[in-house]
Amino acid sequence: MVTYLGKLGELTLKGSNLKFFEKLLVQNAKTYLLSVDAKVHLNFGRLYIECEESACPAVEFTLSRLTGITGWAKAEVTEKNIEAIQKKVLELALVEKEKGAKTFKIEARRSDKSFPLDSYSIMREAGNLVYERQILSVDVHSPDVTFTVEVRDKVYVYSDSQKGRRGLPVGCSGKGLLLLSGGLDSPVAGYRMIRRGMTVECIYFHSYPYTSEEAQKKVEKLAEIVSGYGLRLHLNTIPFTQVQMQIKKKSPENYTTLMLRMCMMKVATMLAKRIGADCLITGESLGQVASQTIENMAVTESASGLPLLRPLVGLDKEEIIATAREIGTYETSILPYEDCCVLFSPKHPVLKAPLEEATRIFESLEVEPLLEEAFNNRQLMRFEAAGFVAQNWGTKENTEKLSKDHAVIVPMPQQSQV
Ligand code: ATP
Ligand code: MG
Questions:
Q1: Where are the domains of the chain?
Q2: CATH assignment of 175-377?
Q3: Nearest C-alpha to atom 9 of ligand 1 is from which residue?
Q4: I need a surface site. Which of 6, 240, 284, 322 has the fewest CB within 10 A?
Q5: Using one digit for the tens of pLDDT, what is the confidence trace for 56-94?
Q6: Do the bridges between strand 38-43 and strand 137-138 make them parallel or antiparallel, or are there none, so unpaired?
Q7: Chain-centre distance of CA 296, in angstroms?
Q8: Beta pairing, strands 145-151 & 103-110
Q9: CATH architecture of the domain with range 2-163
């Protein structure tokens, strides 16, 4: 049996709401691990996951994506006396020495106050065998490895602590509809909101045959990666070719991109209302392209009455790319397949569109019926982190069902019901 420990960060500041956040965190961890034999519980500010060695990859997938924990570690459990602790630290030190470590330090926490040594004494004594036998030498400032000893209901000892996602557990901050394209920015924007505890659904506009099936597959892949953090994610695909054609026919050329943005906002707003989303989310960043000047952003958002969140608005491309690499969307985002805006891009897009002018042009497009039609012809795909875990590591009898429900097209209700 292996025990993983997760540390709660920001959550511990939640005062009277703490219980609610903790419950959600446990529930989320359990959801990832539905198909895996693993026990999840929370006790005095620590998340515990116990499992057999064979389930470790699934548990590590979970802990490295679960929002609401600042760090986690695979811990060794030992008896509650200093001799046992010293032996355990020695065992771990031998492993670390093999890996090339030369120096170490000990950190200790004692939440069980009946343990005879205080944390300072534990720190001093836990490494005795390691330096007596000259396995590693002490360096308290920049050690190659830190061994942590936590004296709780049992004693936990670990060397390798990993960073968590931080933020808040998914499900505590309402629901947002992310406009997801195949680019670098929007998956990162979705991830940012997920980390603030938001449940995210996605909407993608495609212009088949002007955009390829590969472009669609790329967006599906991105949705799957982001669903790893968001627990579950629905991808709504909207056929936008007719709308694009109408814009091309009726709009002044320099306004076409902006008109397309407004149309996207309109349909996204319809969907948000249908699914009960509280806001829209985009990957816009100030000044990145012509449609993202402050004036043009004002025009874009005027097409929706909902709050529009732009979590990347003040970030530059390098910062966005750093996050894309960290969350694993970068390699997919840079695949070459064009998204629907490129083919219809004007040579000289308007940079500072006056709102009245943009609104007048939008009304002259007479595009509303096409927007309705596009909305009604949407297609839904569902991505579930639990399904991904089941496909890769599931062992329980629900594995097949969970696997089958992941990354599949969901039949839409009849037209009369939508
Ligand atoms: P991204 O890298 O996210 O594609 P971008 O830098 O290419 O962004 P734009 O193409 O101007 O910027 O798009 C701005 C935002 O509008 C995107 O971040 C995304 O939220 C939304 N968006 C653009 N194209 C689409 C699309 N085809 N479907 C859904 N949303 C889109
Ligand atoms: Mg784009």
A1: 2-163, 175-377
A2: 3.40.50.620
A3: 284
A4: 322
A5: 999 999 999 999 999 999 999 999 999 999 999 999 999
A6: unpaired
A7: 28
A8: parallel
A9: 2-Layer Sandwich (3.30)
